[in-house]
Amino acid sequence: MPEGDTLYRTAAVLRPVLSGKEIKAASAPRGGPAMHRVVGSRVSTVESQGKNLLIGFENGLMLRTHLRMWGSWHRYRPGEPWRRPLEQARVVIEVEDAVAVCFNAPVAELFDARALAIHPAMSRLGPDILVEPFDVPAVVQALRERAGELGEIGEVIMDQRVLAGIGNVYKNESLFVTSIHPYTRVADMDDAAVAKVIECARDMMRSNVSRGIRVTDADGPPHRGVRAWIHDRRGLPCRRCLTKVVGDRQGELNRHTMWCPRCQPVPAHYTPRTAGAKREAAGRPWRLGR
């Protein structure tokens, strides 16, 4: 799923393409928002908020898209071939010198911008991790309140009602870098440890916004694509200690969660959820030979 840094970059790319431009044509090929209502109006704002992209129009309407797992925004010159077929297009916005297309987004809605403050999804979002000012102590307190006595850091840090923008990649990576197991209960962490995780995720995301690529392993060579410390590396050697990376599912959303058994001490209360995790727990962490 695209995370906050991806949406932040998407907004930065689309802003000069659309801002101030008159909409010449607009459509929703697969049904959904009545995009004809913005034709003739101009784009006033292009912003990201957490994992949402918001495009405001001078006639008072606003388009919200949420990309979930497979969605993406593309920009094209007029007449330029699209990299994806029309049947995947959710929203098409045409200005004089460009075409912006949103593909495969499960959420695309047009509404009165004045209703943003009471929008059922947007009004519940916590502070955006990439937006200044960012009050770390306040977010730490909000995490504690959401977690209660039993809430685990790997689940709570992804709750967009507390902190908007962090997804599975930065959850796994920030917890690894700070040597905290994802199933650690927030109640068992002091404020400094919780703040360290938040600040680590924020530093990674801000760095990747400026570079335009996603690399969480800062010690590795810069390159296109993902170079991760721990995310999506289950069964592979830890980049630090060569212990086999293990994983499980976590939380109500059943998210893939990975950790190094040596670098991230497993809390006593952890009980494997899936068959694979139970098999891993039955064995002993092992080192792979160089």
Brief digest:
This protein has 290 residues and is of the alpha+beta class. It is built from six helices and twelve strands. It has helices spanning 4-18, 136-147, 153-156, 168-177, 191-211, 275-282, and strands at 25-27, 43-49, 52-57, 61-66, 72-76, 89-95, 98-103, 107-112, 214-215, 226-227, 246-250, 255-259.
Can you characterise this structure?
There is one protein chain. This protein is α+β, with helices and mostly antiparallel strands and 290 residues long. The chain contains 6 helices and 12 strands. The strands form 4 sheets. Strands 1-6-7-5 form a 4-stranded antiparallel sheet, covered by helices on one side. A 4-stranded antiparallel sheet has the order 2-3-4-8, with helices on one face. β3 and β4 form a beta hairpin. The radius of gyration is 21 Å and the shape is elongated. The two termini are 33 Å apart. The C terminus is likely disordered.
For the termini, the CA-CA separation is 33 Å
Estimated share of beta-strand residues: 15-25%
**What is the approximate shape?**
elongated
List the total number of helices: 6
Structural class: alpha+beta
The overall pLDDT average reads 90
User: Helix and strand succession?
Assistant: HEEEEEEEEHHHHEEEEH
Largest sheet: 4 strands, antiparallel
SS elements, strand count? 12
Low-confidence stretches: 286-290
Helix percent band? 10-25%
Compute the gyration radius: what is it? 21 Å
